[in-house]
Amino acid sequence: MTRSWEPGTQYNLGDVVEYNGDEYRIIQAHFSQSDWAPDRTPALWGKLPHRHHQQGQYQQQQECQPQQPQKTCYDYGKQEQAPQHSDSKEKKNWFGNITESQKQALEVGGGVALGAGLLGGAFAAWKHHQHKEEAHDSFEAWANAARGRAEEFRAKGPQGPATWVYNEGKHIPEHAILVGTEHNWNLYICRAYCDGGVQIGKASDVFKKGAVIGYKEDEHHLDQYEILLGDMRGLKWVQTGNSLDLASLGATPVEGGYENDHTRLYIARAFHKGAKHPGKVSERLDGAYIPYDGKEKCVKEYEVLCYL
Q1: Is 76 among the domain residues?
Q2: Which end of the chain is less enclosed by CB atoms within 10 A, N or C?
Q3: How many domains does the chain have?
């Protein structure tokens, strides 16, 4: 019987897995992550003819429809602050929609405790293929893919300790990962398309449009974004500083965003003006960059969100 695909697993050449009723043969050996499912990563997996395992045969995923390039962020403006309504509801268990075996796996970190060096080649190959198939990054392509991920999440529940879910406006969904509290409002982690990349920022129900990202030293307000949902029993914040050294983290960072030159961005948490703020960090930046007071602020000491 073909085993089911799972995140946090080493897959080698010749492996065959089942996912969503279809079977896939590996193309490139890699260590799987929660958003590298076979139907989303044609550079890593080839779809086999239905219920047949003929050696060396596979079919590629359907090509994404090319979109017209979009070179600017969609919304701009200054941050608006207002009192936040307190939420007295107890959040539901993140494990509510998954099996007992999946729950046990997540409680020890989702099976994704691996060296950061394993992120390199497989992810780069997938991103190269993804950008080639889409022809150009665009807001429409990103938004369509984000909506698809959200639909899958609603249908199947979480597949790992952290999941990016498409959101619009100021409503903050349950299980959003809380980073800190500024004054009397909560700050959560978001990401959104901007100028050919996907930038990481902050979300709150007091912001003018719901989300704020920093880009090119300015703040940009957006009402279409992804927000990070998850369970901190499978995640941890790792302290570091200055330019990010992935090898020194000792853990795998949660997948974040990317610059328009495809430089990977990771999720940072930095202390500034009495509160912890979400932001972005990369191997090319000289610290964590957080959107704050209409600008981007660089904080040299920060934490990176990682899998256990």
Answers
A1: no
A2: N
A3: 2
CA 225 – CA 114 distance, rounded (Å)? 29
**245 falls in which pLDDT band (50, 70, 90)?**
very high
Phi/psi at 90 (5° precision): -80, 130
Residue 112, number of CB atoms within 10 A of its CB: 27
Q: What is the spatial distance between Cα 63 and Cα 66, in angstroms, rounded to a whole number?
A: 9
Report the CATH number at residue 18: 2.10.10.20
Find the domain containing 198 and state its range: 100-307
Tokens 């060396």 appear where?
56
With bands split at pLDDT 50, 70 and 90, how would you rate the model's confidence at 94?
low
By C-alpha distance, which of 289, 75, 291, 80 is closest to 202?
Answer: 291
The residue whose two tokens read 């703020």 is 277
Decide: pTM greater than 0.70: no
Do 34 and 132 reside in the same domain of the chain? no
Question: Could you report how far apart the first and last alpha carbons of the chain are, in Å?
Answer: 30
Query: Residues 202-239: pLDDT tens digits?
Result: 999 999 999 999 999 999 999 999 999 999 999 999 99
Rounded Cα distance, 155 and 174, in Å: 16
In which element (H, E) is residue 236 found?
strand 235-241
**Cα torsion 97, 33, 161, 290: sign:** negative
* Amino acid occupying residue 112: V
Tokens at residue 285, please? Answer: 């930046």
At 180, give phi and psi (nearest 5°): -170, 175
253, 265, 102, 24 alpha-carbon torsion, rounded to 10°: -120
Does residue 150 contact residue 222 with C-beta atoms inside 8 Å? no
